[in-house]
Each structure stands twice: as structure tokens, then as C-alpha cells.
Amino acid sequence: MNIPLIIRQLGRQDYQDVWHQMQAFTDQRDENTADEIWLVQHNPVFTQGQAGKPEHLLQTSNIPVVQSDRGGQITYHGPGQQVMYVLIDIKRHKAAGRDLSVRHLVTALEQSVVKTLADYSVQAYPKADAPGVYVDCQGIEKKICSLGLRIRKGCSFHGLALNIKMDLQPFHYINPCGYAGLEMCQLADFIDPTDATCEKVAPKLVAHFSKILGYNMQQIFNN
Asked: Active-site residues: which are they?
């Protein structure tokens, strides 16, 4: 593709601020607007997907709960988790003859994480019946990455959240992604924690995603 992919490093921000920026970007974009990836770490927050059921919040805390417009159930975001939002014009890919459906985009996101973790010799895998990426940890299946998308005007926003090195305790306050008893893990559980940083992981994640979807131009901005 000769359409540039713009990468924005947003640092650490509140969830709602970035969410509303994604909505505005998607509503205002046109056929000439470049696709973008937004990299961000969020301040602690629980987010409920469109079909989120309140019973999956098991206990209240001082962490706010936000009703989002993405797909999926409840999850947690916090510092040390690499969030990658993908603002992709899906219909433009289709017009260019590329078979990019929502399912293909989900697969691209999952495979980007699988390949990134493989760079650290961590074997991970997606599941057909439960979007996200999982790792077997001493015989226990644990989730290391959550996914949730929204499609508007043929364009995507929201994306993935990959646990790098964070406080996992808030996940015990919920049924992660609506699954009771699901355990979460993070990259720092498997490698030298000094190598488990968002700053080191993010470029690998972006590179794999760009290659999978065939982008050959990238412009990087630190916002």
C-alpha cells in the first residue's frame, strides 16, 4: 500500500480523553485521511464494552468504571500496559482489492501480539471463541492481551491492550472479558523485568502489525 501509516505516541493519558479523540477522528476523517496507530498507557480504569454485563464487576474500588462503545465485556487498563489503538479505513483497503474484514483485522491484531511475544521467546496463541491472546503458564491458560473494536463509517477504532509490567491486582475485581476465573498474566512474568517495558515492546508490536497489513510507509509522531 502507498497509503502512509501514522504512528502517534501519546504517553500516559486518561481513557475518556483518548476515547473521545478517537471518536472525533473517525467522524471527521475522509477517503484521503491516513490510517493511524495510537500508542498509549492509561491511568487506572475499568471499561465496559457495549454488551458489558454489570455482574462482571465483582467488587467496587476507587478505580472508575467507564461505559465504552467498543465490543466485548469489562477489562482493566493501567500503567505498564501497552494499549494500541488502530484507526483503520477498512473500506479503503477493500476498495484497493485487499480482503480486510473486521475478522481479518482482529486476526492481524492477535498475530501482531503473538509475533511480538515470540521475539521474547514467549509462545502465545489466539482462540477462535474468545478474542485476545493467551499463554500457557505452568499448565494454566492465562490471558496476556485483550481486544475490542468499534467500526463506524467503515473505519475502526479502539484496539488491543497488552500487559507488559503492571499491577495485575485490579483484574481480580472483575471477570476479565466476561470470563469467571480467567487469570491474567504479563510479559514481565516470562522475561527479565528490565526488558519488559512499553518503550521496548511498542516498536516491535507496530512493526509486526504494519507488515501483516502491508503498510510500507510509516510516519512517527510523539504527541
From this structure: 177
CA distance 145 to 94: 27
pLDDT in tens, 25-81: 999 999 999 999 999 999 999 999 888 888 999 998 999 999 999 988 999 999 999
* Distance, C-alpha 72 to centroid of its chain: 12
Binding-site members are 70-77, 146-148, 159-161
Q: What is the DSSP letter of 180?
A: T
CA distance 122 to 136: 10
Structural domains in the chain plus CATH codes:
5-222 (3.30.930.10)
Cα dist from 186 to 80, 89, 101, 145, 191, whole Å? 9, 30, 29, 8, 10
Q: Are 81 and 145 in contact (CB under 8 A)?
A: no
Kindly write down the DSSP assignment for every residue of 48-97, as one continuous string. E-TT--GGGB-S--SS-EEE-SSSSS-EEE-TTEEEEEEE-BHHHHHHTT
Question: What's the distance, Cα to Cα, between the start and end of the chain in Å?
Answer: 25
User: In sequence order, what are the beta bridge partners of 8?
Assistant: 38, 221
Residues 6+ apart with CB under 8 A from 158: 22, 68, 70, 71, 85, 86, 148, 149, 150
> pTM, whole model, 2 decimals?
0.95
Residue list, annotated binding site for substrate: 70-77, 146-148, 159-161
Q: What is the mean pLDDT of the chain?
A: 93
